[in-house]
Amino acid sequence: MAMPPLSHQQPPPLDSSEQDSLFHVLHSINPQIPWHSLFPTLDLCVSPPHGVVCDFPSPSNQTAHIVELSFGYVSDFSPNPPCSPNATLNPLLFTSFTHLRKLFFYKCFNASRVSLPDVVVSPSFASTLEELVFIDNPSLVGSFSGMLGNFTSLRRLVLTGNGVYGEVPHVIGDLVNLEEMTLSRNQLAGQIPSSLGTLVKLKVLDLSHNGFEGRVPECLGNNLTELLKLDLSFNRFVGEIPESFRNLQSLEFLDLSFNHFGDFGVPLFLGEIPRLREIYLSGNILGGKIPEIWGNLGGVLRIGFSEMGLIGNIPKSMGFYLRNLSYLGLDNNNLEGPLPEEFVLLKDVDEINLENNNLSGRVPFSNRIVGEKLKLGGNRGLCVDHKDMLRHTKNKSCSGQLKLCNKPDIPIPIPNAVLFNGVSLVLFDLHMLFVSLGILFVFAGL
Asked: So where does this one cross the membrane (predicted)?
């Protein structure tokens, strides 16, 4: 008998054990939904719930498998199975889906405490999983080291906005295929292990908003040369920003703000990373002057240098080279001197914050820039040339502090005021005027 065309063949049925486990998992996510009634079919892969993806590798394969599970509201265009306030995390997730490549939870666990299950991850689950993503699940609590299995295929590890705690274990270096590790907004602490430097495929490393401390290992800069994004902000790192970061030649985003890096000044090697687009160092007492490093950084879009103890003048080169700049934060420093007139070249700027410095002199900007985009409060030495510029600053933080500039003394030009042998001919012209007046007085009989 001839086989029917491939397009008319029935897909292979879902593995029965996976289907049973999926119903248990769906019930744990939202027990208020009658999942069996909504999906009475004997094969969930024929018409699965949103967020459930099955795989049909080839016509010869006799069984379908679940390869993606995504739970939690994402958008109207991707209505994944909604999570109820009393959602729980079923241990079957980590043992029953032996072909799973992606596990995703978004805003599912935000009410009563949910503990990460104390289960042994099945070897097949660990060997196939490529993406493990938990975003904004604040009541999901558990040890970070307890979550890590032998995830030999894991490419994305995203745990942000959860209740994950503990230190990053040394075995993190075994996840050699990781391309993204985002652990932001958790309760992690301790020091960064040097084994993190073995993850040479990393393109994104985000450890922000945790309690990490100690020095940042030099190996991050020496080995993670594929990094596009490095975010260590809002931790308690100390010491010097590693010189090895100059090796991150692909880096586009660098955020080290609000740590305890100090007393070493703005790193000069930043000028050697030409692909940088965003640089944030705010909240570290680095001190010193703003260096002249901007010649190779014409693509920079955003700079955050607030609360850094900076002194001296604002370099004119920032306005000259950074033509694409959209944000510049230099507020709450000890900068002084005039605003560079070259800042008028920043045509695409959305905000320049220069508040609470010791700047002085004329403001070289138009009314539109002053009123909408330029923050100047706390610089009593600054002045503007026109009253309407003062009007634009009303209800702003700088209201009542800017003043009109004194008009410069402009000399009155005197015709014929040329020099002849070093003596102004104006004196000669005045002498002739007095002579003429004397002749008139004589003819008038005075």
From this structure: 418-444
Work out the burial of residue 132: count CB atoms within 10 Å of its CB; fewer than 13 is exposed, 13-18 middle, 19 or more buried: buried
Whole-angstrom Cα Rg for the chain: 34
Are 214 and 191 contacting, i.e. CB atoms less than 8 angstroms apart? yes
Least confident of 251-260, 271-280, 344-353: 344-353
Strand 253-255 to 229-231 pairing: parallel
The range of the structural domain enclosing residue 376 comes to 302-409
Number of domains the chain is built from: 1
Q: Is 404 inside any structural domain?
A: yes
| HEC sequence for 55-72 | ECCCCCCCCEEEEEEEEC
Query: Which residues are CB-neighbours of 134 under 8 A, at least 6 positions away?
Result: 105, 140, 158, 159, 160, 162
Q: Supply angle C-alpha 326, 331, 335, rounded to 5.
A: 110
Please list, in sequence order, all residues whose beta carbon lies within 8 angstroms of the beta carbon of residue 391, skipping any fewer than 6 positions away.
Answer: none
pLDDT, tens digit, 9 for 90 and up, residues 345-390: 888 899 999 999 999 998 887 555 555 688 998 998 998 877 656 6
Q: What does the pLDDT read at residue 186?
A: 97
392 inside domain: yes
pLDDT for 7 beyond 60? no
* Cβ count near 21 (within 10 Å): 18
